Amino acid sequence: MSSDEVSLLHHVRLTGLMPGMTYHYQVTAGVNVTGDHSFRTFPPESGSFDFIVYGDSQEQLPTFTQLERHKLVADRIAEEETDVTFVLHVGDTVGDPENPEEWNRFFAAGGGAMLANTTIYPITGNHEEIDDGVTYYEAFDMPPWYSFDCGDAHFTMLDSSDISGSRMTEQTAWLRNDLASNTDPPWKFAAFHHPPYSSGTRHPGGWLNFRDLWGGPVFEENDVNAVFNGHVHSYQRYLVNGIQYVVAATGGGPMYTLTEEKATGYQNSLENTLGYTRVHLDAENETVLMEFMPVAEISDDNKEVLSIYPRGSVFESVVVELSRTPDLVPEEFILPAQVFAGENNTIGLSVANRGSEVSDAFTLSLSAEGTEIGVTEVGSLEPGAATEVNFVWRPASASTYELTAW
User: Fold this and answer.
1) pTM for this structure?
2) Residue 197 dihedral angles phi and psi, to the nearest 5°
3) CA–CA separation, 114 vs 286, rounded Å?
4) Of 16-20, 35-39, 153-157, 400-404, which one has max mean pLDDT?
5) Which of 68, 180, 215, 322 is the most buried (most CB within 10 A)?
6) What is the CATH number of domain 43-321?
């Protein structure tokens, strides 16, 4: 394909591409020719695939630029994730959208290896608001909200920024219709910048307006499996009424601290760490594997990169099942500092519901070396909730015991 247009920014539309194919390309501008690059088209209507989620890649001058922080994440993705179908960016691509030099650094950091060989699906954040989204729309040529299908999944991309603030009613009506009318793909994912659930010190609890507007009334009613957000510069994960809410604001911006007391549905978090979330959708087994891949540890004052994680490092892995069922998991024994033979000792056991539906009341049993210690009834548990159950144990002698719960 060729174009005679004289411009600093070109959009070239490719048509007639076949699904599940890898295409190679070069870009020629005058006497300048790039090397060989490639991208992969989406799998057929039903198929497995991988994608990447991260956001908040903006720089903070004069402390660091995107070439010093964002590039660490983008290069690791290019090195490790050679089979990804696309990258989902959850907003704040740049800190100052009116600065063309930072846009150059964004594309240099991400495009050197990563963006040159895959596809990016972006959404706006609060930093894109600075020029009312003008440069963002020029760069990406995307609507303020949109959706697409890939394999067995439907993706809904939303604008939580003030750019679309006056059109929120319109956007919400579109969202309802989009999810309700796309029922064939079994998996549903949504993404927008401001997290409904977050434990950031600057905005503890998260953006409750989006919980009320899109959470229960839309996402839960339409069986959305996971929601990806940014803005609070950290990795966080919440499980609320069967939906995984992932804060993936780890793309290079200055890191934020989290409150000691966490928001509703809290499951896990990691501060002061750049990285990305890798998602593998397994169509055959009807599961999704989400993993946070740490890349670099950042100092508390955001001035230094303290260390680089080894390739292949994984902070946590979470399996999401398509079937919505409770999943009761005994997680941790809470033992006294010392257990005394011939005396009553209190043994605690933490049990969590890691599934996507409310559990019924259930019976929990604890034994030591096959001898029953006790049985107790436990009430129903919401998805993501946990409870602690106590048993009284009187060991006959001082010895080593194996405790078993079921």
Assistant:
1) 0.84
2) -125, 120
3) 28
4) 153-157
5) 215
6) 3.60.21.10
